[in-house]
Structure formats: C-alpha cells, structure tokens
Amino acid sequence: MLREIRTGPGFKWWVFATIAVGTFVSVVDNGSVLIALPEIEEHFGSDLPTVQWVVVGNALAISALILPMGRLGDIAGRKWVYIGGLIIFVTGSALAGLAANLSWLITAKVFQGIGSAMIQGNGMATTISSFSGAERGKALGTHMSVVGSGAIAGPAIGGLLVAAFGWRSVFFVNVPIGILTILISWYVLRPARETAAERAAGRFDWPGAALSALALLAFLLVVGNGHRLGWDSPAVLLGVAATAALLSGFIWWELRAESPMLDLRLFRRKLVAIGAAASWLSFMGMSSSRFMMPFYLQRVLEISPRDVGLLLIPPALCMVLLGPVCGRLSDRFGWRALTVSGLALSMAASVIIAANLTGTSPVVFIVLMLMLQSCGMALFNSPNNSSILGAVERSQYGVVAGLTQLIRNSANVTSIAVATTVVVVTMGSYGVEPSLDAVSPAVAGAFVAGLKWAFFLMAGMLLTGVVLAVIRGERKRPEPAAPTPPEPAQTPAD
Q1: Residues 245 and 168 both lie in one domain
Q2: Count of the separate structural domains present in the chain
Q3: What is the DSSP string of 271-322?
Q4: pLDDT means over runs of 10, the chain (494 residues)
C-alpha cells in the first residue's frame, strides 16, 4: 500500500497532509500558550514580564535557528530533519507540561523552539518539492491556509483546554498528536531526491550558522527592547554594534565559504533580492496593526478580550480562504499583478485607518479595514514566495524557504517595535505616560494620535513595497508541469 501511495498521482497531497498536521500543531501551540500565560503567572507567583519569556524564548529560538535548519535539511535530507524536529517538539512539550518551576518551563519552551525551527524550516520546502513548478503557487497558498487556520484555532483551543484541564494541558495535548504525526511522517515521506548531490558534495556551514543565529538573536533583542530601554541607552547601542559586527562577519564568511549556509550570490537574482525586500516591507507594514488594534479595541472601546478574539476571526479567515485561490492564480497568470495589487490594497487600508481613526470609531469599520489588509496579504504572500522559490534550484529550497520564514519573523518584531515607539513617543508629547500600559479611554486622544502616525508610517513601507513589486519583473512563461518521478527501490534509509 505504501508503494501505491508513493507512486500514485495523489502522493503530493499525502505529503501535503502530513506536513500540514505538523505545521498546524506548531502554530496552534503558539496561540494556545498565549492564552495560558495568566494561569502560568498565577501558578508560579510571578509577574507578566517574566512569564512572557515562555513565549519570547521560544520565538527567539525559532527565529535564530530556522535558517540553519533549512540548510541542514538541504544537506542531510528534509525528511530526517523534519522528523527530528517533531521529536524535539514533542519532547519539549512534555517537559513543559511537567515543569516544576518557571525556569524549567522557559528552558523547555526554548528547547521546543529548536524543534519548531526544524519543522518550519523544512515543512514548506518538503511540500513544494512534491509539486511541479507550475503548481508551486497552489502548494504555497494551501500551506498558508493551514498556518491561518492554526492561528485562528490556537487561542480557541487554548482557552478550552485551560478552562477544562488547566495550563499544563496546552503542552500535554501536543504529545499524542505529535507522536502520531511522527509515525505518519516516517512512513509517508521519502528522502528528497534533489538533495542527493548536496549530501554528497556539501558540508554544513557551522560558522555561518552560528554567526547568522547570533546576529539575528542580537537584532531581535535590540528591536524588542529598544522602546523600553531607550534607543540611545548603552545596552541598546551595544546590541546595535554587536548586530552590525556579527552581520558583517556572517557576510564576509558566507562569501568565502566553500559550502555556505546561505549562498549570498542568490541575491544577484532580481526575483530573489527584490522579492525578499518586498516581503520584508509587507510584514513590516502590516504586523503592527495586528498588535496595536487589540489595545485599541480593549482599552479604548472597552470591548472584552473574548469579544476581541471573535472580532479578529474574520480578518484571519480572509487569509485562510484567499491563500489557495491566490496561489492558483499566480500559477496561471504570474506574480506581478497579484503582488502589486495585494500591497496596494493593504496600503489603502492603512491610509484609510490613519485618516479616519478616532476614539469612538465603529467596530465594523475597524474589522472591515483589518479584513482589507488581510486580503492584501493573501494576494501578495503566496505569489511572492512562489516567485522567490521559482528563481532558485530545488537543492536550495530548504534554506530559501527558511529565509522566507525568517523575513516574516524579523519583520514582525521590527514592525511592532517601531509602531510601539511611534505610539508611546506621541503619547509622551501629549503629556501622557509614554507606555501602552497607560492606554485607557481617558487618554484615547493621545493614543489614537500615535496610532495614526504609526499607520501612516506603515503605509509608507507598503508603498515602497509596491514600487519594488512593480520593478522586479515577471516570469516569461509558466513552468511546465514535471511528471512524478518513479519511486526508487526501497532501501534501509526509507
């Protein structure tokens, strides 16, 4: 039966379903843990800034390691790195559920983040490698729907689990599902054919991996804490210097390494370089709205957290429903029209919010603008990623797929940090305490003024992305569909 699945025309969907389960579980975990933080804070008698390191430590581990893990999958085989990531993820979940103190819990979540980086760095690459080049957009769009579904389901599942079984259940629930996913992955996935030459000739670039991880870690710590410590504080300035030194060292090494972790010469290709820049600007221009608007809805309009969660479902559904459609359209008609219109749509939503937001704006207006932003992201994201991956060899899929995830993570953090700085500085100029903790109906005018400036700034980022999407070019013709290769004889490695 296994041979029939592997050689049948529907094998690519078996691969997709297998990867989708692992991806869904890892995304749901993020949302459910956020819901459990107040319970964890109370259980360990700690404070929120300390407890937040449960999430922050996990996110830093994922962001710092996703690029090296994508490259490791290119060399060692994506199947094995993906399964190894699932094993680490399940083990980290079990350890987190058993945590006797907060330090144990944070350490377990950092360890789990290593597994998540292995999953995210190889899951998408494994999926698109199973589809022909002419179906790449469809694969990416459907994959994005899985991520969107997990983002919607995470807080809801977390809330139900915490209410019924306590905070430990959000970690323990990953164990049986993860074990089942490991078994399915072991039997369904096959070693990626396109990595054979890389495994024979290439070596893993340990110095490059270390330099990239440390540079990204320093960067994320700087942008994540700059608004709190002060952008001119000694700690932040030292972090900026460390980031610059590590990044310079990484570039110097990668240009000279025999088998670089990330071949920087790929950025000589227009679709890769401009596509990556446009992607970073797109997340830079949209991520802060998803962070800031809940503050506005809860603390200015005084809507309950439960109702805010429900109000944010429609924008997320736009991503889920439009992702596969936009991916298929990009396969058929190309990328430029979709990416340009997507960024333009999101930019328009940001400008409308900035121009019309008040301390008493209708909830319907806010939700509709967030939906418009999400539609723009759906139009842009899958076609843009497809254009980047279409410009590189299949043996580079892992590290380049990891790069797209890294772009998203780093831009998300930067967007939130920049928007927070703009908002709190504006609040300070109005004579209000420059902190998001001070947001309330009494200071709505100062907070809304800061939000308006932040949205205008983000619209400018998106406008720059529109320009890049226009000038980067378009493929000349669709790639032909590649026939499914015959399955090789079964070996012990399978």
Answers
A1: no
A2: 3
A3: HHHHHHHHHHHHHHHHHHHHHHHHHIIIIIS---HHHHHHHTHHHHHHHHHH
A4: 60 83 84 80 79 82 85 83 94 94 92 91 79 71 75 76 87 92 86 50 77 86 79 89 93 86 83 89 84 83 79 81 79 82 93 92 92 89 82 75 79 82 90 83 91 93 91 55 41 37
CA atoms within 13 A on the CB side of 306: 2
Q: How many CA atoms lie within 13 A of 29 on its CB side?
A: 31
Output the pTM of the full model.
0.76
Same domain, 428 and 346: yes
Domain hosting residue 53, numbered range: 1-204
Q: In the prediction, which pLDDT does 89 show?
A: 95
CATH number, domain of 334, equals: 1.20.1250.20
Both tokens of 493, joined, read 């490695």
| Token pair of 233 as six digits | 């504080």
Written as one letter, the residue type at 289 is S
Asked whether residue 482 is assigned to any structural domain, the reply reads no
Which of 217, 242, 258 marks a domain boundary? 258
Q: 92 near 61, Cβ under 8 Å?
A: no
Q: Is residue 196 part of a domain?
A: yes
C-alpha to C-alpha distance for 45 and 56, rounded to whole angstroms: 19
Q: Please give the structure tokens belonging to residue 465.
A: 């992305």
Cα(149)–Cα(145) distance, rounded to whole angstroms?
Answer: 6
Q: What is the Cα–Cα distance from 487 to 493, expressed in whole angstroms?
A: 14
